[in-house]
């Protein structure tokens, strides 16, 4: 299985990660072959190939590591301050 080796899946989102372009091409080929065998197909317009940084489930993932998506932090920072104890 590819899960947790080079593939993360959440509902209908599939993230394939690799250290090199060559490795990524092989991982991509394996995953697409598996999907094809199961008669599962993706929407090419929603695909992004060979990305060095991606936003995935509220995180930014890159070769540098995983960080919280800055837009999520900004949304929290922009919350209005409470005006009473019950808020």
Automatic annotation (TrEMBL):
<dbReference type="InterPro" id="IPR051320">
    <property type="entry name" value="Viral_Replic_Matur_Polypro"/>
</dbReference>
<dbReference type="InterPro" id="IPR043502">
    <property type="entry name" value="DNA/RNA_pol_sf"/>
</dbReference>
<feature type="domain" description="Reverse transcriptase">
    <location>
        <begin position="1"/>
        <end position="61"/>
    </location>
</feature>
<protein>
    <recommendedName>
        <fullName>Reverse transcriptase domain-containing protein</fullName>
    </recommendedName>
</protein>
<dbReference type="InterPro" id="IPR043128">
    <property type="entry name" value="Rev_trsase/Diguanyl_cyclase"/>
</dbReference>
<dbReference type="Pfam" id="PF00078">
    <property type="entry name" value="RVT_1"/>
</dbReference>
<dbReference type="InterPro" id="IPR000477">
    <property type="entry name" value="RT_dom"/>
</dbReference>
């Amino acid at each position: 299985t590819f899960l947790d080796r080079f593939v993360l899946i959440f509902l209908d989102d599939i993230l394939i990660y690799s250290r090199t372009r060559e490795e990524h091409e092989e991982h991509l080929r394996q995953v697409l072959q598996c999907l094809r065998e199961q008669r599962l197909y993706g929407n090419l317009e929603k695909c992004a190939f060979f990305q060095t940084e991606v936003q995935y489930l509220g995180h930014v993932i890159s070769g540098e590591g995983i960080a919280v998506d800055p837009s999520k932090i900004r949304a929290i920072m922009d919350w209005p301050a409470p005006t009473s104890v019950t808020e």
